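Throughout this review, each integer encodes one residue's backbone shape. One record appears below.

===
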Amino acid sequence: MKLSSDKEVAMKSLRFLNTFLLCVHIIFFLFFGWNRITIMTIMNMFSIITYAAGFWLIKKQKTNYYIIVIFLEIMIHMFLSVLCTGEGCGFQLYFIGCAAIIFYADYFSMRLAKRHIGGIAMSVCSAVLYFISLRIARGRGAIYPIGEGTQNSLMTMNSMAVFIVCIYFYSMLTSIANYYEEELSRQANHDKLTGLVNRFYLIDHLQQVYDEGRMKDYWLAIVDIDDFKMINDRFGHNCGDFVLKSMTSIIESCCGDLTACRWGGEEFVMVGAMAGGLEAETAILETVRKTVAEREFVYDGNRIKLTITIGAAPYTDHQTIDEWISAADEKLYAGKHSGKNRIVI
């Protein structure tokens, strides 16, 4: 999820919130007007204007100003609502629901603007107003007494509204947390340049296969680009990165069901079960070697010829993972010192 995506998610959430609250306040305006609760009728006129202006603030991406404005509107509106109608109508519940909005907004404020909006302080303020409004309402009673049936209807409606807000924003936070957990896991297990799995992931994967006793027919090949340092020295590291990504494409296109890994530097690993044994393994590795040797790599007008050397070893009983990898590495070493551009099995 890039910065632009974060902004898109934040703006979408704020538009949902603003639309939802605008609709709620229109209903409140009609209800309070019908029941001649003058204070709240006037208050909701200002609320409707506030949320209409909220769309402009969201469009201009003035998210911090928007959150502060709606926070103040909710606090004032709900405080007056409890005083006017009493606690039986459930307007005090919005103080609780406001916490979900505040911390969701605080999260995105940190990601997009690198600063907090004071989520804890705002939530504490909401809690304080919650208890103060209840204390006053219980001590003095409602300014505009409402029938029990109407109170029950309002309590139901307000409870549903608060649940909708909480469910929406907590579910969004959960989705975001899951996404970034998966993204961090992917980044930890994959090489950033090539997109292949890295050696840490591969070793863990092989250890799991080993522990489960599924190593039968497994082969491991270490692929090394010959004289790669010369490419970096002569053409630059950007060219070296181009070569590594090109090698990745070749290996992925040839390895079939095998797992390809960026082992480190200019080395790659291909590993997996090969039911065809030595003949099948040799055929795949020779395809990779030959493809690289025959291809002309063109970078910034430079035509580059490459070769690779491959050391491969089958898994044998009672080997540890480290011993198996070392066996393939020894074959690679032998190939490097016997002319390069070859496969040693």
